[in-house]
From TrEMBL:
Keywords, alphabetical: Cytoplasm, Ribosome biogenesis
Record-linked Pfam families: RimP_N (PF02576)
Family per record: Belongs to the RimP family.
GO biological process: ribosomal small subunit assembly; translation
Stored PANTHER family: RIBOSOME MATURATION FACTOR RIMP (PTHR33867:SF1)
Protein name in the entry: Ribosome maturation factor RimP
Length: 153
């Protein structure tokens, strides 16, 4: 009952903000509510406050004792929502599939796949030495076990 009401309030708050989307939502047995959101243009503290208010201002603390935590998805958190890929175009991702691990620049994200590009040094086709070649991999979402943005400093 309480969880259903909180979920409805959360969904209403996100409906008002089409640029934000839900990454994770949980309520434990002590009514500790935890909401993790992300946004097409990132998430500001004000965005977290707005979603928090959408939930908190519509619950009665006299009826239910609860705590509420609304946060943005961390920079080192794996990508879990397709919309996160579009937001991270032109950034370096490390993507794990069942057969391999690829690190490359995310150049495209469609409804079904992502495209990564990277440069590799390979032996010249003729003669000695190596040459730099551009590589590309198109990876279906269902093959992705984990994808993380690689933070470069």
């Amino acid at each position: 009952m309480f969880k259903t009401k909180v979920k409805e309030l959360l969904e209403a708050g996100l409906t008002e903000r089409q640029d934000l989307f839900l990454i994770d939502f949980s309520i434990n047995t002590e009514n500790n509510i935890k909401v993790i959101i992300d946004g097409d243009q990132g998430v500001l503290v004000e965005d977290c406050i707005q979603i928090s208010r959408a939930i908190e201002h519509n619950l009665d603390r006299e009826e239910e004792d609860f705590s509420l935590e609304v946060m943005s998805a961390g920079a080192s958190s794996p990508l879990v929502h397709k919309r996160q890929y579009n937001k991270n175009k032109n950034r370096t991702l490390k993507v794990k599939t069942a057969s391999k691990e690829i690190e490359g620049t995310l150049t495209q994200a469609t409804e079904e796949t992502i495209t990564l590009e990277w440069k590799a040094r390979e032996p010249k086709p003729v003669g000695k030495g190596k040459v730099t070649v551009k590589k590309e991999a198109v990876i279906p979402f269902e093959d992705i076990i984990e994808a993380k943005v690689m933070i470069k400093f």
